[in-house]
Prior knowledge:
Residues 296-452 are annotated as: Disordered. The chain crosses the membrane at residues 458-478. Its main location: membrane. Belongs to the Nogo receptor family. This is Reticulon 4 receptor-like 1b. The structure is a single chain. With 479 residues, this protein is of the alpha/beta class. It has a domain at 25-157: CATH 3.80.10.10. Helices cover 17% and strands 10% of the residues. The protein has helices at residues 2-19, 235-239, 261-269, 307-314, 401-406, 444-478; strands at 27-29, 34-36, 55-57, 65-66, 77-79, 87-88, 101-103, 126-128, 150-152, 174-176, 184-185, 198-200, 208-209, 222-224, 246-248, 254-255, 273-274, 279-281. The strands form four sheets. Strands 1-2-3-5-7-8-9-10-12-14-15-17 form a twelve-stranded mixed β-sheet. A two-stranded parallel sheet has the order 4-6. Helix 1 (2-19) runs antiparallel to helix 6. The longest helix has 35 residues, at 444-478. It is elongated and about 115 Å long. Residues 1-19 and 303-455 have low confidence and may be disordered.
Amino acid sequence: MFFRCGLEFLLVLWGLELSWSCPRHCICYSAPSTVSCQAHNFLSVPEGIPPHSERIFLQNNKIHRLLRGHFSSTTVTLWIYSNNITYIEPSTFQGFTLLEELDLGDNRYLRSLSPETFHGLGRLHALHLYRCGLNELPNNIFQGLRNLQYLYLQDNHLEYLQDDIFVDLHNLSHLFLHGNRLWSLHQNTFRGLRALDRLLLHHNQLQWVDRLAFHDLKRLTTLYLFNNSLVELAGECLATLGALEYLRLNDNPWECDCKALSLWDWLKRFRGSTSSVGCVAPPELAGKDLKQVKKEDFPNCSGSESLHQSRAKSWPGTDKVSLKQEPQPAQPPPAQPHHPHIAEQFSPVPLPQPPPAINGAQEPEATPDVVTPQRPGRSRNCTRQRTRSGKAKEPNEVHTSKEMADKEYSSPDFTGKYDPTSPDSSVTRRKHKCTPRTSVRPPSGVQQASNRGNLRRALLPVSIMVGLLVLLSTGLVLR
């Protein structure tokens, strides 16, 4: 009997030790259950991650592959940014019905993804795929992500977006596509994005935009198209954006001849904030802002119709237009087909992040001057506040308040924390200076918990010896 009691005593001690198990070099704590294994040069996902972990932080390591079984389906937040991931097994996140935020950004060698990679993530609200070297997005890769609100695809090598690639993203509010190699936007590229608020397409190689490219974006308030290769843009294209407030068109080679008449007419009617629209042709208008051009400056366009006239005559039903046929009048320019690789390479534009509050943000008016943009070197990634909406900060929150502020931006005019170009193409005065992501340090309570775990490890041999001595003493007494 005494032997049984001693054995149970040892098992209790061993059970207490197991309750504090955690992968080596990592920090684990509860409320919520969290595993932090960042910045330890792991070459693979460390073994021993406790099951039922809700938050897993593996950023700033050297992990190469993600496979099924590396994580538990109870995961809510998973950060694996700034690693060396080259392959993600399609079933890695299968069954992760609770996952809300997935950050795979800054994995520069992740050139491709399987169409099934994110299927089933019905609660996902933020997906980070910035600076991953992605050359294309497979069809149906975002299928079923109906709760997604933030999608970060900037600073990749995307040249083309398939029709209906975003059609399931009914709640998407922020779409970041800047810093890619996109050269055209078609009629159904953005179909289904009826809740989209911000669309950032600057620093691409856009040459052609279909006049119905934005027909579903009824709630869009911010559109950035600056620093592309646009020579024309139909006024009908922008007329579908009834909620638009902020528009950036600067640093495109605009040709202000007859084909610019519909855009000129739309700009005269627009009451929101716009940047300058600098003309490069014809010679007599070079250097002028299209918004300042007068009707008399279009002397040879008497046969051309203004936006108002064309809508009244031939475009009466925008909402009823067929979405299965491309419009015939506008066609992509034949001079430069799909060969964007020959274009000038530039340093990637670092990622913008969702603001803490969108409503009420004020934006200064853009200056009409055209300034050649400066392109600084590559910036490092920073950390923004990542908490589930509607919940107060927890005392054991992993990131400090300083790190939280670094990854936020505060107004629609600020395209992102690192965006080096202001609306008028001058260097942006950053609201929060970007600091490199630093190692996560646990709060004091967590460190104390870890120390208690170390103490239990140190006392375990002593406890075992005491238990054995008790058993031997009891045996001698009974004899």
